[in-house]
Design brief:
170 residues; alpha+beta; 4-stranded mixed β-sheet
Length: 170
């Protein structure tokens, strides 16, 4: 069964409920929540999508997430996706949202950050591989590996966000 999402306008205001498949097919704006996951040492988790997935199979991702369901906040969706995909229960922190035009269709992308345990239980239906990379390793991988469009856009904005005064993380 196709998941239901809220169709939103260019100001991220709800306009109605549609299927995600229809939103993607018609190019309608909807919401997606993703999280940059770091461990206590500051490494970032990178995953490779399962070959069974219909969207971007076998591409790498530097964010974990998915569509925001009807009635969910960005934070609720991000927490749900972390539980579903990595088997961890943490409360991610929403950093910012932006209108993202990369990927299959335009969508509002809520970017979160969370510290998660190194030991995760990756859902094999979604994740074929995962690894923890230092920032230099990740920067190198982003140039050499095939990442999803959302990964590049979200991570570059995430790094810019961290560089702003008052937003720095150790």
């Amino acid at each position: 069964m196709d998941e239901l999402v809220e169709r939103v306008d260019d100001q991220d205001r709800v306009m109605g409920v549609v299927s995600r498949r229809q939103a993607v097919r018609e190019g309608w704006l909807h919401r997606v929540a993703v999280t940059v996951c770091r461990d206590a040492g500051g490494r970032t988790i990178v995953t490779r999508r399962s070959e069974r997935l219909s969207r971007f199979p076998e591409l790498y991702e530097v964010v974990v997430g998915g569509a925001v369901g009807v009635g969910e906040s960005y934070e609720q969706a991000a927490a749900r996706e972390l539980t579903e995909e990595l088997g961890v229960r943490v409360q991610p922190r929403l950093l910012f949202a932006f209108l993202n035009r990369s990927g299959l269709s335009p969508h509002w992308l809520g970017v979160h950050e969370a510290v998660v345990p190194d030991a995760v239980t990756a859902d094999p239906d979604e994740i074929a591989w995962y690894g923890w990379l230092t920032e230099p390793e990740l920067r190198s991988a982003l140039l050499r590996w095939r990442f999803t469009p959302d990964s590049h856009e979200a991570f570059s904005r995430y790094l810019a966000f961290r560089l702003r005064p008052g937003n720095a993380r150790s």
